UniProtKB/TrEMBL annotation:
It comes from Embleya scabrispora. It holds the Pfam family CN_hydrolase. Coiled coil: none annotated. PANTHER family: BETA-UREIDOPROPIONASE (PTHR43674:SF2), NITRILASE C965.09-RELATED (PTHR43674). Residues 11-255 form the CN hydrolase domain. This is Carbon-nitrogen hydrolase. The keyword Oxidoreductase does not apply. GO terms for molecular function: N-carbamoylputrescine amidase activity.
């Protein structure tokens, strides 16, 4: 996408970390559209929005989630498509979806000027999400776009290396992950563990990753506010911000670099794989029977 970046090999990726409010669907839609406008004005080609950007996150029960959910051709995604078409950008954003069968999903779409290119349903549900949403069972999509090959995951999906690897093995140059990362205490001076996991996934797969978090307290929950854009070496190109607040992160990414999986003259992170040895990882054997008290004693003695 050379006309926006000035370099045909560069794509400007943005994470729009915005404040959301549970249940304020109209306000959340306005905030997301305003963020898309700001990012495009700053030169972004690909714009990532947070998880559940239409509904907010901390919902009381399944009935409340169902009340905020909307179809993929509803006003939220339609608005993103119209903005993408008008501004010439790609938008990846999360939303509470009601699918064709009436199931409520924690979903994310990739839209560009041509329309909705992919709708992905989060496969790995976190915490109480299992009470609110039906998990997806399809692999993360990898979409060929004018910017490059973009994969889509949602939040907790990123913590499953096997799931991330499925997208990179299918050629993703950039993984876009709408996220909502609840804040948890960490040792002084330590970075958020969520960002560390994003960096690790980027490095072991040699792929760009853009994870867009959210901001703003919600029903007693605070957020990491840890949006980050990472290069194939695992190093941050932008972010994470220092606090839970609204931020627009921008990074220039040479996405074709993600297709070179070599590390030095002798190694290649894909060619060096030995899948014939990985069966126990994919289908682990049953744990041996043991006496829990024996393990407790052993730990105490150490």
């Amino acid at each position: 996408m050379s006309d926006r970046t000035g370099d045909a090999t560069e794509t400007v990726v943005a994470c729009a970390q915005i404040a959301l409010s549970v249940g304020d669907v109209e306000g959340n839609r306005r905030a997301a559209l305003a963020a898309i406008e700001r990012a495009a004005a700053a030169g972004a080609d690909v714009i990532v929005l947070p998880e559940l950007a239409n509904s907010g996150y901390v919902m009381r029960d399944a009935a409340e989630a169902a009340g905020y959910a909307e179809p993929v051709d509803g006003p939220t995604v339609t608005g993103w498509h119209e903005a993408a078409r008008r501004l010439g950008v790609i938008v990846v954003g999360g939303f509470a979806e009601r699918d064709a069968d009436g199931a409520v999903r924690n979903s994310a779409v990739l839209v560009d000027a041509s329309g909705v290119r992919a709708c992905y349903r989060k496969a790995h549900l976190w915490g109480r999400e299992g009470e609110l949403f039906v998990p997806g069972d399809a692999l993360p999509p990898v979409v060929r776009t004018d910017a490059g090959r973009i994969g889509v995951l949602v939040c907790y999906d990123v913590e499953f290396p096997e799931w991330v690897r499925t997208a990179t093995l299918r050629g993703a140059d950039l993984l876009c992950a709408p996220v909502n990362w609840p804040y948890a205490p960490r040792p002084a001076g330590e970075r958020p563990a969520e960002d560390v996991r994003v960096q690790a996934n980027a490095a072991v797969n040699r792929v760009f990753v853009a994870a867009c978090d959210r901001a703003g307290p919600e029903r007693g929950t605070s957020w990491v506010g840890g949006s980050i854009i990472v290069d194939p070496d695992g190093f941050p190109l932008a972010g994470p911000p220092a606090e839970d607040a609204e931020h627009l992160l921008l990074a220039r990414c040479r996405l074709p670099e993600a297709r070179d999986k070599r590390i030095g003259a002798h190694n290649d992170v894909f060619a060096d794989r030995r899948p014939e040895l990985y069966g126990p990882v994919l289908e682990p054997p049953p744990l041996p029977a043991s006496n829990p008290s024996e393990h407790t004693t052993e730990r105490t003695e150490r």
